[in-house]
Amino acid sequence: MSDPFAPFPVSRPRRLRSHPLLRELVRETDLSPRDLILPLFVRPGKGVRQEIGSMPGNYQLSVDALVEEVGAAKELGIGSFMFFGIPASKDATGSSALHDEGIVQQALRATRKAFGSEVLLIPDECFCEYTDHGHCGILHMHNGVTDVDNDATLAILAEQCVSHVKAGADVVAPSGMMDGMVGAIRRGLDAAGFVHTPILSYAAKYASGFYGPFRDAAESPPQFGDRSTYQMDPANGDEAMKEVALDLAEGADMVMVKPALSYLDIIRRVKERFRVPVAAYNVSGEFAMVKAAAAKGWIDERRVTLEILTSIRRAGADMVLTYHARDVAKWLR
Ligand code: PBG
After folding, report:
1. What are the C-alpha distances in Å from 168 to residues 101, 111, 120?
2. What is the pTM for the complete model shown?
3. Annotated catalytic residue within 74, 90, 205, 291
4. 82 beta partners
5. Which of 92, 144, 226, 312 is the most exposed place for a label (fewest CB within 10 A)?
6. Distance (Å, whole) CA 17 – CA 13
7. Which pLDDT tens digit goes with each residue over 163-214?
8. pLDDT at residue 1, as a whole number
9. Is residue 1 classed exposed, middle or buried when 0-12, 13-18 and 19+ CB atoms within 10 A define those classes?
């Protein structure tokens, strides 16, 4: 920026902070429930509403309870939801993810039936919740090391997305960090006639310690090793630009940076460089830290949460996935 500012005492930045209404007029970033996507966890059963210990106020829900939860959030002004499934059974290839009667497919149909086009439904597209080994795709041996077989996983990923769209998904959001996943999904959706279904790609997803509570919630921790052969090294920024560029070239309509708080610089760089809709995922560990410190009385939960979400928006995120969505919607009423 060039500096058109006269020096003090002509310039006094405090003038614009002197009145609350004036502060509102000059505020650069806004936060509304319409910017938020609430992640929800669905599991088999009826009347199940099981609180996730490390994520207070968040639950594993059976389909009927999930429909109620969506209805309540909708009343607060939240319109968009991400679904994660905890299936009845797991196997080596995560086959239950592809069934028309799979848990997420059931959740999509029931929610669509209850609320029609008044909600936007965005299932997470991945296999870690459905495989018995907890990795995000099919495994193979490569040079003596067991690893996720990228290209074999692409085929079932496209199938999973088609199945979810048939069940009522508005947008699909692949989170497995497989190379070529966006292109494979685009081809699969187009071949099935779903040319208008957008893809929100988890384009820059880091191998992060901040996913800890989620893995309990989704019952999806890897049973051996970690996700470092597919998720990104937290030390890398240029590589995120490459991942985003590749996903956009393959047809991604929106891109995500995940986690959010340790990666605000990445959000900013992606927004400035690509000028496309950017989502940021304020992940489970980020949520749990705020809840834990607030429970101890060490921070003001409302103030800190609004500050965090505003900072993610200020960094350049158009939309934020967050477990705070319900609380925020209440506070902003
Ligand atoms: C993978 C997936 C994960 C999250 C969203 N999708 C976990 C992982 O990569 O291990 C994490 C979300 C969170 O921590 O809130 N399907």
Report:
1. 13, 9, 10
2. 0.97
3. 205
4. 39, 122
5. 144
6. 7
7. 999 999 999 999 999 999 999 999 999 999 999 999 999 999 999 999 999 9
8. 60
9. exposed
